[in-house]
Model the fold of this input.
Amino acid sequence: MKKLIITGGNGQLGRAINELYKNREDVVCINTDVDELDITDLAAVQAFVAKEKPYAIVNCAAHTAVDACEDQEELAYKINAIGPRNLAIAAKQNDAKLMHISTDYVFAGNADKPYREFDITGPQGVYGASKLAGENFVREFADKYFIIRTAWLYGDGKNFVKTMLRLAETRDEVSVVNDQVGSPTSTKELAKAMDVLLFTDNYGTFHGTCEGVCSWADFAEEIFRLAGKDVKVNRITSEEFAAKAKRPAYSVLDNYMLKLTTDFMFADWKVAIAEYMEWLLVQED
Ligand SMILES: NC(=O)c1ccc[n+]([C@@H]2O[C@H](COP(=O)([O-])OP(=O)(O)OC[C@H]3O[C@@H](n4cnc5c(N)ncnc54)[C@H](OP(=O)(O)O)[C@@H]3O)[C@@H](O)[C@H]2O)c1
Done:
């Protein structure tokens, strides 16, 4: 029986991981969120990991509110950098693996081809910079680690898809940014990729996003199409939208390390969003 400590387990990805393993007899998940295990508290992390002696720690905890991070720099660094550092220290002390999740926002977003794991980083805001610091701590303090950079995540929790569906209840047109492109990724697909790596010694830094590319405006249109909502998408620029944090314009990731070292292929983003929308419908029944 392999024991996993899931941190941030009530978040979107944490829920997907718990769902993936709920019927697996060879894996048991110790689910924690901030109330059970605050990853910013080194002593608490060390005591918890020493007590549980897990096979692996899967870090799904993060401060993911990108705009709020601009005003909450200290909190962002505590959760996104010190947190994974603490987990890395405890993982090493207990000979456990650490799987840590990072983001496309570690890149500057000015490339003209998909970013590979070997490309130079250049975060544009506090969120991306704090996540990059977290990655570096994991590399520095853990021995057996997987860092998986993902992007545009949606699952069981607050996300862009649900925001669009909420807006569709009261509006017949919405303005959505068209000059940022990336790959919307379902937590279900990401959890499958995590499972492919977690029980191996195939360590390192990986990109993990659904295949295919679109803008936020394209994504919104596909969501409305699948939901049968007649909502017009007005395509606007990032400047017009004026979010607090600067975001990468081109944040497409190439899952190059997964392709080099495994047979795993992510679903295309259109396939994954269709599956998610069907799942949402079942939840509403
Ligand atoms: N969402 C995206 O679009 C996206 C894109 C790229 C990468 N990622 C990365 O993917 C991972 C999973 O993201 P997600 O969307 O599943 O995030 P999420 O839904 O925001 O979940 C994060 C969880 O971490 C918890 N948390 C916050 N501070 C904590 C602490 N000090 N100790 C323990 N838990 C704490 C949160 O609790 P509270 O809710 O109570 O704060 C929440 O339950 C993160 O590493 C994120 O950076 C996400």
Observations:
- The longest helix spans residues 73-93.
